[in-house]
């Protein structure tokens, strides 16, 4: 298998952008992720795939909690700060933050936040798949379109007006 070709192919998969946050030893940590999926509706659960070299990986592993914050296109500067190598405390200077149930930071400036408790962790190659039960969900007031990542950069989604026929 040609790994470079695989990576080029995966760049063609448009993905929603989420900010994964956690609280570990009293400090907030986070990373930007596109590998987020629902697992089940009963119990409500999500999975995230995190590179073992990511600075937040060990903190998620130790704390057993994370919050998935679905980013809107207006949150692109926040995503950029979490993708850079700036000091982790400075990452949380942008945006408005609250905590839900676990204590992991929830971004009020996101579309939705899912507060999660890890139930299973599966290591495969370079990544860990963290499967977690959702213990709280917050739907924020944003009406922005979601932030999407495609071909190595952030993209905008064209949101058409509702075309549902009137009854």
From TrEMBL:
Keywords: Oxidoreductase. SMART domains: Flavin_Reduct. GO terms for molecular function: FMN binding; riboflavin reductase (NADPH) activity. It comes from the Bacteria. Residues 10-156 form the Flavin reductase like domain. Pfam families: Flavin_Reduct (PF01613). This is Flavin reductase. It comes from Agrobacterium vitis. The lineage of its organism: Bacteria, Pseudomonadati, Pseudomonadota, Alphaproteobacteria, Hyphomicrobiales.
């Amino acid at each position: 298998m040609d790994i470079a070709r695989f990576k080029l192919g995966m760049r063609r998969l448009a993905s929603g952008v989420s900010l994964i946050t956690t609280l570990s030893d009293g400090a907030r940590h986070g990373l930007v992720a596109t590998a987020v999926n629902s697992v089940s509706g009963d119990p409500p659960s999500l999975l995230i795939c995190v590179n073992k070299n990511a600075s937040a990986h060990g903190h998620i592993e130790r704390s057993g909690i994370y919050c998935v914050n679905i980013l809107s296109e207006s949150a692109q500067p926040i995503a950029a700060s979490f993708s850079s190598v700036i000091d982790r405390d400075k990452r949380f200077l942008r945006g408005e933050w609250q905590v839900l149930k676990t204590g992991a930071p929830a971004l009020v400036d996101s579309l939705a936040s899912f507060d999660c408790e890890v139930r299973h962790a599966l290591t495969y190659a370079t990544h860990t798949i963290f499967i977690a039960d959702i213990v709280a969900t917050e739907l924020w007031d944003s009406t922005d379109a979601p932030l999407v990542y495609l071909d190595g950069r952030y993209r905008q989604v064209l949101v058409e007006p509702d075309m549902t026929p009137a009854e």
